[in-house]
Structures are given as structure tokens and as C-alpha cells.
């Protein structure tokens, strides 16, 4: 009985497509996710985070994930770069996503910067990847993966 109730509860709580606010759009689809070697983030974790966005139909299919060492550029064309913090204060934030937008017409590239201490934090990775894919914050629902202070509240990831 209790298992059945749990299953039912889980289903009722699942995200729907309407739960995600698409705030920015890519000019073309991102072709690659690049993990810089300045931070020890596992490919498998990024893959898992990407699956969240595929399951929730924000993107249609997998994006190739590569490890790279040339991380001095701010952006790479059609790529989502994941790198350690460079342009934000790690005393104030866990991570930050920057978008290279062309004349406000669309995203050309994205860069996710993460405090190296959080390199295994899948919730944070899903959240920032959401921004990089064009999804904005969800201010009202504290359990939402796109809640601004996602690490300070319990978060549903199914
Ligand atoms: Zn955010």
C-alpha cells in the first residue's frame, strides 16, 4: 500500500513541459558540451544531467560531450563550455552561466562556471545546464530545479 502511494505521489509531482520557462533561444542547436580540464567534472555526470533535459523534452537528443584543454576563450561557437569559476565570486555563488548572444537574436555559445568544490553536484549541474539550454528561473516553486537558490531547498529531479 505505501509503495503504491509513493509511486502515485511521484507521478503527480513529475515535471511537465509547462514547468520550464524558455527565456533564451539558440541560433543553432548546441553541437557539443566541452568539459575543461581546469575542473575535475566527470563526463558521466554531465551525461546524466543532460538526460534530465531530454526526459523533460527541453532538448530532443543527446549532445556530444568532450574533454578539452583550451579553456582560455570566453566562448566556443555552438558549444556549451563547462569550466571552473573565472568571472564570479565563489563566496557568493556556487555557479554561474554566461551566454554569448548575437544582437539579442539568439545564443551562439554558453559557458558554465562552477566552484570546483561543487564538481560532483548533479543538482547544480542540471540547473546550470538548464540555463545554458535557454531555461530561466522559476521563482515561486522552491522544489523546482530552476528555483534560484536551488541548493538551499529540497529539489525534485524527476
Ligand atoms: Zn540559476
Task: Give me a quick take on this structure.
This protein has 158 residues and is an alpha/beta fold. Helix content is 23%, strand content 21%. It has a 5-stranded mixed β-sheet, with helices on one face.
Query: What CATH first level would be assigned?
Result: Alpha Beta
Question: Which percent range describes the beta-strand content?
Answer: 15-25%
Which CATH-level-2 architecture?
3-Layer(aba) Sandwich
Order of helices and strands: HEHEEEEH
Mean of residue pLDDT?
91
Q: Give unreliable regions as ranges.
A: 7-12
Distance between the termini: 22 Å
Give the domain tally: 1
- Oligomeric state of this protein: single chain
The major β-sheet equals: 5 strands, mixed
Question: What is the CATH superfamily label?
Answer: Collagenase (Catalytic Domain)
Strand order of the largest sheet: 2-1-3-5-4
CATH topology title: Collagenase (Catalytic Domain)
- Helical/strand content category: alpha/beta
Descriptive account of the structure:
The chain is of the alpha/beta class and 158 residues long. The protein has a single domain (21-152), classed as Collagenase (Catalytic Domain) (3-Layer(aba) Sandwich). It contains three helices and five strands. It has helices at 2-13, 43-55, 122-133; strands at 32-36, 64-68, 79-84, 95-102, 106-114. It has a five-stranded mixed β-sheet, with helices on one face. The model is unreliable at 7-12 (pLDDT under 50). Bound molecules: zinc ion (ZN).
